[in-house]
# Entry
Amino acid sequence: MSSFATTFESMTNGLRAGTTPEWEDLQSQSKVTKAKRGVEWLATIDGPDMWLIESNTIMELGYIPRHDECLANGYIYSLEDAVAKWAGDGENGPLDEINFLSHNWCMGPDKSKIDNDNFDKAKMVAHWHKWRNGAYKRSRGKDTPVLWWIDWSCIDQSNSAPGAAMLPAYVKLCGMMLCCVHDREGKYFTRGWCRTERCLFTAMNSPRNWFFYFYDVGEFNPWQTIDDPRTGNITKESDRPFIAKLTEIALEFWEKNARSGFDKTNNYKEGVWAKVITPQLNFGKTKIMSWEMASGVNFPKKR
# Structure
């Protein structure tokens, strides 16, 4: 059985070898090409597959299923299978945007511990599906599944350490991170693993986050700081060394990407983005561009 340490070492080596200028150029040109290249890249890493679940599956079930249930019923696709199924749809297909759900667990029903008793996160996936298809209807011309990476569905819950070690690679291959804030106390922002996910996406992809609130937050601050994952709250203290290792990777790649300008499809070196690109990621100080994609369940009509 793989451990965090062995998987993390392989993932780190693969990450450093994979983030060449050629890889960055591919990433900037086409999300479908990025997914194809990602399949080849993940094959060089000794770690679990990257699994994805369709929004349609969650909508039909009414809840977000656990990984073993997903495998038993064919609810999830490996990235390789997803590419084989949808690459032909091009930029108007599901591979246009792989979404990463960042959230703190609500400890609800056994079949979906990550959610609450009302299955609000599953409902959020349904709302997101509806909004994205509405926003892109003109170009897609049909109702298209939205692909998600969600820890409960996409990591083996009986041996989660190798999947956790692969987080930087999974984050790297996603195009959007949706941060789900369901409690008014703001527990999401205090959780070590939530901070880790935001930190990794900021460093590995682009310095921006999208937020979904289950309540009206009033005036939203579009510039959110990233707090140190290593000082966040965690359920199991034994996870803290893992979080520290992942944070080190984020800090390393922030410096590398800050020099190159992050994703070249966005101009991060001029205008409002200039304040983001600092040589180092300074926890509690570096501000990340953020969007409030929903307050309650009302999505904006346009991006």
Observations:
- DSSP finds 14 helices and eight strands in the chain.
- Residues 272 and 289 are 9 Å apart (CA to CA).
- Residues 263-272, 297-303 have pLDDT under 50 and may be disordered.
- The two ends are 44 Å apart (CA to CA).
